[in-house]
Amino acid sequence: MLQFQLRQVPFYCLLLLVTYLSVLPTVETPDFDHSDKVLHFAAYLGVVAWAYIGFPKASVKLLICIVLWSVGIELVQWQMPSRSFDLLDILANTLGSLAGWQIIKVMQRICPKLA
Predict the structure, then answer these.
(1) For residues 73 and 22, is the Cβ–Cβ distance under 8 A?
(2) Does some domain include residue 65?
(3) Which pairs with CB-CB distance under 8 Å and at least 24 residues apart come from 75-79?
(4) Residue 55 lies in domain
(5) What is the pLDDT of residues 86-105, one digit of tens each?
(6) What is the DSSP annotation of 1-28?
């Protein structure tokens, strides 16, 4: 049985924040090409890192769920008049998620107490 723990709160808060910001009307980003992709990458890197902190025994299944969540958000945006579906957003989300997962794995090797 899964049991809620306080260390999971930041993960859920960040996931809700990313979801909320993803369904708001379009937000202006800095004036350089693909700046929103950097934001997507960073957001999902953070979501995965906090997911690991909240669920330290999680498997790659959690990573897959987060990536699928990001695809779901893009599909919701496709249906919104003020937002648009973008495969590059999915790519940035996925790469950010993978980067977060890899950073955690490297940190585990450097400091085994994290495992």
Answers:
(1) yes
(2) yes
(3) 76/22, 76/23, 77/22, 77/23
(4) 7-22+32-114
(5) 899 999 999 999 999 999 88
(6) -----GGGHHHHHHHHHHHHHHHSSP--
Angle (CA) 99-79-24 rounded to 5° is 65
Q: Which residue has the higher pLDDT, 13 or 111?
A: 13
Short-list 97, 86, 100, CA closest to 34: 86
Q: What is the pTM of this model?
A: 0.83
Asked if the structure places residue 2 within a domain, the reply is no
11 found inside a domain: yes
The contacts of residue 84 (CB under 8 Å, 6+ apart) are 77, 78
Whether residue 1 lies inside any domain: the answer is: no
Residue 89 structure tokens: 């957003």
